[in-house]
Recover the amino acids of this structure.
């Protein structure tokens, strides 16, 4: 009897001891919040998922593609040959008003831009790494802040969006080209765009043209199936609003007024899809 | 006593070799006289013999231009104190630049580069000729690929940087070489800094006095060991600036229109033509420009007031400016070329 009592006490004590030691948390080593000390999985594991931020150029209801003609709201025939720009400080806000940084810098290009070294590829989207959030909005800056704009581009690897091989840096003056837009408009009004029509070129940059805090309000529940997209429209009619494309040439320093006007238009042209 | 001598003689080779090694180690660096400040090297580009040798080879090699026709030395001739004698420089396909090539003598002491000061480091300045369609016109990434496919260059980059040829090493090697271009041995230096009274003529001494006088005010901007205060000034060269806005090209400020970096006057007799656009052919004409008081642009420096010179004063001023030529610097680098 004594032996039985003793065995029961030992058993009870060991249960008690085990219960005290139990450590709940994420036990999956592949999870972002893997807890080495946890021995019971409490279902809180979080995983990296891909969120694609995709930009689409639109004129009214028409999708605008590079090297293809489109007609603007005021009836002008336009062909954009280059549309490339930096966005930076890209972050999302969750429904709980938590701000999550997604990426420092991204280069968007509407013509599947590939650097000469073939190591960097830019498209009209960037893939961001995040978690399963309920997103309220996405924010970004247009261009680069002074903190990163004035650095030495040779310090970046060839696969970095600020690498020297991308021709996005003004070597005769410090800083990057924030936005490059080039193309032609039907300047002679004959209904076609050909070699007789004028080119337009606007390259913006410098500290005064850095535009912060562009906010795209849109609810999105990230599902984590690698098909999540946050779509942003660039309204081309806002982009060229009150800009005479027959007389639009600026490398910013040699045409600051035009560059500033365009940059303000561009910052206002981003909309949720 | 004899024992001490034995000890000294026994240690002598060690001491001698130790000193010799130290001297060899430093021999790739330029000699900086005590009247020049020490060079401040960037943290990510301290010089070493391999870097400098590589930079020098690259400086003179046309491999860096699109059609293999020009090198850095095409616009920076050693015999002309690393300027090129043209109004404006020519690039690949004889393309015309829009500014006069600047001397590279003592470029190690510059803080901002180009005549408008748009670039903050010598390393970053070296990117510009690659991008310009009237200079090398070859993306620097493509130039690095060329070098990477060249066994000799690959080995030299490995030795200098421990990595294959790339833009990072390319600009740092050339910058490291250019920082060795120290010109500090003119006749004027011998007279002024080394107290050799006979090193320059009495006429040149009178010219120096004029240069330093309040009447001419040259030394207000062309001051210090390198005869420049590195400021940006509108010297009244033009009544208006439409082709080249100067400093305003970078700052976008109206008050900077027509302002250009004050150049060094060292080797000035060798670096004609003058001004940012090479529009003044001779030193005599430069003096005449300042004598006239400039064209009166709204941003013109208040120091440009005009003055009158007697002919002997003009000749004295010219003699002083010629005394700033450093024949030893030219000879040394021409031999190396």
């Amino acid at each position: 009897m004594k032996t039985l009592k003793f065995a029961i006490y030992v058993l009870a004590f060991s249960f008690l001891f085990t219960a005290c030691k139990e450590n709940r948390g994420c036990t999956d080593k592949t999870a972002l919040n893997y807890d080495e000390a946890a021995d019971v999985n409490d279902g809180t594991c979080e995983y990296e998922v891909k969120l694609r931020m995709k930009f689409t150029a639109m004129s009214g209801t028409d999708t605008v593609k590079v090297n293809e003609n489109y007609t603007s709201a005021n009836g002008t025939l336009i062909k954009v040959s280059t549309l490339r720009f930096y966005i930076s400080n890209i972050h999302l806000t969750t429904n709980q008003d938590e701000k999550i940084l997604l990426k420092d810098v991204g280069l968007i290009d509407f013509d599947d831009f590939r650097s000469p070294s073939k190591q960097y590829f830019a498209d009209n989207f960037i893939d961001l790494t995040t978690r399963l959030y309920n997103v309220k909005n996405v924010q970004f800056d247009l261009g680069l802040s002074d903190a990163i704009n004035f650095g030495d581009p040779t310090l970046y690897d060839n696969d970095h969006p600020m690498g020297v091989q991308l021709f996005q840096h003004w070597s005769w003056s410090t800083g990057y080209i924030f936005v490059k837009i080039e193309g032609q408009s039907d300047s002679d009004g004959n209904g076609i765009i050909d070699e007789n029509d004028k080119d337009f070129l606007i390259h913006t940059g410098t500290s005064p043209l850095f535009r912060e805090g562009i906010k795209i309000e849109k609810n999105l529940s990230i599902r984590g199936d690698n098909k999540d997209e946050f779509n942003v429209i660039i309204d081309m009619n806002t982009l060229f609003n009150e800009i005479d494309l027959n007389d639009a040439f600026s490398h910013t320093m040699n045409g600051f007024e035009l560059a500033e006007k365009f940059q303000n238009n561009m910052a206002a042209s981003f909309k949720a899809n | 006593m004899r024992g001490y001598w034995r000890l000294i003689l026994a240690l002598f080779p060690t001491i001698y070799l130790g000193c010799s090694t130290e001297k060899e180690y430093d021999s790739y660096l330029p000699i900086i006289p005590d009247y020049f400040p020490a060079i401040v090297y960037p943290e990510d580009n301290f010089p070493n013999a391999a870097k400098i040798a590589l930079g020098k080879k690259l400086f003179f090699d046309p491999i860096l231009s699109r059609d293999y026709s020009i090198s850095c030395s095409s616009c920076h001739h050693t015999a002309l104190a690393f300027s090129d004698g043209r109004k404006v420089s020519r690039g690949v396909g004889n393309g015309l630049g829009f500014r006069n090539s600047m001397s590279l003598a003592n470029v190690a002491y510059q803080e901002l580069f180009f005549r408008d000061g748009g670039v903050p480091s010598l390393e970053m300045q070296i990117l510009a000729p690659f991008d310009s369609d009237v200079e090398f016109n070859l993306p620097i990434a493509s130039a690095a690929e060329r070098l990477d496919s060249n066994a000799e260059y690959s080995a030299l980059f490995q030795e200098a940087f421990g990595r294959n040829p790339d833009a990072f090493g390319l600009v740092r090697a050339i910058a490291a070489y250019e920082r060795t271009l120290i010109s500090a041995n003119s006749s004027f230096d011998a007279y002024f800094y080394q107290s050799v009274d006979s090193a320059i003529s009495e006429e040149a001494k009178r010219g120096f006095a004029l240069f330093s006088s309040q009447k001419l005010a040259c030394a207000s901007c062309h001051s210090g060991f390198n005869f420049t205060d590195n400021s940006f000034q509108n010297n009244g060269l033009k009544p208006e600036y439409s082709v080249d806005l100067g400093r305003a090209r970078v700052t976008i400020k109206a008050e900077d229109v027509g302002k250009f970096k004050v150049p060094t006057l060292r080797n000035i007799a060798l670096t004609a033509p003058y001004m940012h656009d090479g529009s003044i052919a001779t030193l005599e004409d430069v003096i005449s420009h300042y004598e006239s008081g400039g064209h009166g642009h709204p941003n013109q420096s208040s120091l440009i007031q005009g003055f009158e010179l007697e002919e002997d004063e003009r000749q004295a001023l010219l003699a002083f400016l010629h005394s700033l030529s450093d024949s030893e610097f030219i000879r040394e680098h021409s031999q190396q070329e």
